[in-house]
Specification:
By secondary structure, the protein is mainly α. The protein has helices at residues 9-101, 107-150, 152-162.
């Protein structure tokens, strides 16, 4: 800078301008460092959000898998109960026919078998209603899982998290 080193007012002014210039250069350097640090922090935040979004998506996938497995197990149990019900109904019908054939002394047994058959029918209806409800719940869970997995809201949420 011209004039620095002079012993008069111009030298003093040149020195002040040089100090001001150095301060501005230092302020620019600090501003650049702050911007780099901000960008690094922003990148780290985005990375953390992406990792969190991936972890949430993985957890939801596991829950969905468990729900589908449970629904399949429930459906299998419902089918097994239906087969048991059918076997019981067939056995009761045979016992009822045998009871009618045995005559007057066994009429009390036949009446009891009829009452049991009505109870089995009531249980059968309840089992069928429960099985239907379980199938509907299973189908709804699968439908909602698929809809959620394909939903733009989930994708938008992931994009928002991932910046």
């Amino acid at each position: 800078m011209p004039g620095i080193g002079r012993g008069d007012e111009i030298g003093a002014m040149a020195g002040a301008v040089a100090v001001f210039r150095e301060a501005m250069l230092e302020a620019d350097r600090l501003r650049q460092e702050r911007e780099v640090a901000r960008q690094q922090a922003e990148g780290a935040r985005h990375d953390a959000q992406r990792a969190l979004a991936a972890e949430v998506e993985q957890s939801l996938g596991k829950v969905s898998g468990h729900l589908e497995h449970s629904a399949g197990t429930l459906d299998a149990a419902t089918q097994a109960m239906g087969a048991t019900r059918d076997a019981m109904a067939a056995g009761l019908a045979a016992a009822q026919a045998d009871a009618a054939a045995t005559g007057e002394n066994v009429r009390a047994v036949a009446a009891a078998a009829e009452e049991l058959a009505r109870s089995v029918e009531a249980i059968t209806r309840q089992v069928e209603e429960s099985a239907g409800a379980a199938r509907r719940a299973s189908a709804e869970a699968r439908r909602r899982t698929r809809r959620w997995a394909a939903s733009p809201t989930r994708r938008a949420a992931s994009a928002t998290w991932c910046g």
